[in-house]
Amino acid sequence: MTVTTNNHEVIFAIVNSGFAEDVMEIAREQGARGGTILNARGVAREEAAAFFGITIHAEKEILMMVVEKDIRDNVLNAIYREMGMAKAAQGIAFSLPVSDVAGLAQKIEPEKKED
Question: Is the pTM for the entire model greater than 0.85?
Answer without folding.
Answer: no
